[in-house]
Write a structure and sequence with these properties.
This protein is mainly alpha-helical. The chain is built from 7 helices and 2 strands.
């Protein structure tokens, strides 16, 4: 697959306003056949890289940065990594350390509207692009991210 700097975009999922990158065309990393999604995409290292890149993007996003623990962004990155690993078929370390994810409850104290969701998706899209998953894995993960981001919305405000 040839590497390209072009980017596909779509209108914001619920509003049709603005754009969220769908997938940057990049050289996909090779993956083994068989195994869990977690194994197919490269295991812990892939999810560590996604989480680290996501939080680097959060540091640059004025809309998102106030929603995260300023004194523990590295800890937040680790928790995201563990959550994603567990969700995608890896170790259950997240649940062992923190219990059930209860995502809506954990995010309830924060105003999450359309603008926050879209900023989160831009940061996550960049993080996912940094690991260049195979197209079918990228699509599956991205579809989950869009659903999860929309599910976290707790206000109709832009």
């Amino acid at each position: 697959m040839a590497t390209s700097d072009s980017e596909q975009t779509t209108a914001s999922p619920s509003t049709g306003q603005g754009t969220i990158p769908l997938r940057r065309k990049t050289e996909a990393a090779p993956v083994a056949s068989g195994g869990s999604f977690y194994e197919l995409v490269g295991g812990s290292e892939t999810f560590r890289r996604i989480a680290a890149s996501f939080y680097e993007n959060v540091r640059q996003e004025p809309l998102l940065l106030p929603l995260y623990p300023q004194d523990d962004l590295d800890g937040a990155a680790r928790r995201l990594q563990l959550f994603l690993e567990q969700y995608w078929g890896g170790p259950h370390t997240y649940q062992e350390e923190r219990g059930h994810p209860r995502l809506r409850m954990r995010h309830a104290p924060y105003k999450i509207g359309i603008a926050e969701r879209d900023a989160w998706l831009r940061a996550m899209r960049g993080a996912m692009d940094s690991v260049a998953l195979a197209p079918e894995h990228d699509q599956a993960m991205w579809e989950y991210m869009v659903r999860a981001a929309d599910f976290m919305r707790n206000t109709q405000e832009a």
